[in-house]
Structures are given as structure tokens and as C-alpha cells.
Automatic annotation (TrEMBL):
Keywords: DNA-binding, Transcription, Transcription regulation. PANTHER family: TRANSCRIPTIONAL REGULATORY PROTEIN. This is TetR family transcriptional regulator. Residues 9-69 form the HTH tetR-type domain. Gene3D superfamilies: Homeodomain-like, Tetracycline Repressor, domain 2. It comes from Pseudomonas beijingensis. Residues 32-51 bind DNA. Pfam families: TetR_N.
Length: 195
């Protein structure tokens, strides 16, 4: 039976979505093409009908999940973002969490093309955070960007460090609690909170 173009596109999107979750859970090198296709419900042989290589899928899956992170956090302000991001729930669910926290370490050892995908995702995340950052005063755009870059690096690092600890480790929770508190404290009060 011949697959329609619409069905082929839907199949491709399903493979990308499945790959995105598996890559965040296991890392880029922890998922083979055969395992990935089986998880998506397809045969291994069908992979190359959709993608030129695993590297192509890695870049597309990363771009997709980075864009999804922006969509998922679009309606919250920066302190709420920090509270959600630097949390045990996020730490314990890498497959549904942020691609940066799950795969930055892997991306550092991948192709320049994949690094470009991550750089673009970081820029988009910074732009979104900058647009939601309420300083309550006239602050230069460079300062806002620097603050959001510092905050994002701190938040991503906190999740990565916490995930490197045993699941039931007191240190894993301590990292999250201290980093979250320090990040929130470093943010100025919103204009509504100022006297």
C-alpha cells in the first residue's frame, strides 16, 4: 500500500518527536537507529526514506524540542520559569524536559551543524527570556541579555549537576534548592512589587 505525502509527513513528525524524547533520555549516542525506529513503530529500513543520516535526525529533533520548550514556557514570567526549570520534576523527567539540560554535554562533542542548532536554540531562549524580564527601571539591553544568559547557564548547570547525582541523593536536592534560591534572589523585584 502506497503512503500518501500527508501520511509520510505525519510519520516523519512522529519519528522526530520520538527521537527527541529518546535523545533527551539516553543521549545522542545512547540511541541507535533501529531502537529509535522500533520505538516510533516503524521498521529500521524506513529510516532512510525520511532522513539522510542519524545526524540529520539529531539536528531536527533538537530543533523541534528546543522550539517546544519555548512554546511550553511562553506564558510565564522569569521567576516562574526559574521555579519550574530548577525543580525536581524537571530533573526527574529528562525525556520531557529541556533539551539544553539534557543534551548540551552531548552536543559539545557533535558536528558543527548540530552546534549551530543548539546555538540557535540558546539565542531563541535568551530572546524569549529577555522579552519577559521585568526590571522596573531603565536598564541597557546588554545588561538584560547578560542577566538572562547568567540565569540560563545557572539553571541548566543546576539541572545537569543534580542529574549527575544518585536519584535519592540529598546533594541532588540541595543543588536545586540553593541554585533556585540564588537565581530568584538575583532577579530584581518586578515593577508591581516595588514600593
Amino acid at each position: 500500500m502506497r503512503v500518501t505525502k500527508a501520511q509520510a509527513q505525519a510519520n516523519r513528525e512522529h519519528i522526530v518527536e520520538t527521537a527527541s524524547v529518546l535523545f533527551r533520555e539516553r543521549g545522542f549516542d545512547g540511541v541507535g537507529v533501529a531502537d529509535l525506529m522500533a520505538a516510533a513503530g516503524f521498521t529500521h529500513g524506513g529510516f532512510y526514506k525520511h532522513f539522510g543520516s542519524k545526524a540529520d535526525l539529531m539536528a531536527e529533533a533538537a530543533a523541534s524540542s528546543l522550539a517546544q520548550s519555548l512554546t511550553d514556557s511562553a506564558d510565564i514570567d522569569v521567576p516562574a520559569f526559574v521555579n519550574l526549570y530548577v525543580s525536581r520534576n524537571h530533573r526527574d523527567a529528562p525525556g520531557g524536559g529541556c533539551t539544553l539540560a539534557a543534551l548540551c554535554g552531548d552536543a559539545a562533542r557533535q558536528s558543527p551543524e548540530l552546534k549551530v542548532t543548539f546555538a540557535s536554540g540558546i539565542e531563541n531562549m535568551l530572546a524569549a527570556l529577555e522579552s519577559r524580564y521585568e526590571t522596573g527601571q531603565d536598564v541597557a539591553q546588554e545588561e538584560v541579555r547578560a542577566k538572562m544568559l547568567d540565569m540560563l547557564a545557572h539553571a541548566v548547570g543546576a539541572i545537569m549537576l543534580s542529574r549527575a547525582c544518585p536519584d535519592d541523593s540529598a546533594l541532588a536536592d540541595e543543588i536545586l534548592e540553593i541554585c533556585r534560591a540564588r537565581i530568584i534572589t538575583s532577579l530584581p523585584p518586578s515593577p508591581a512589587q516595588q514600593p
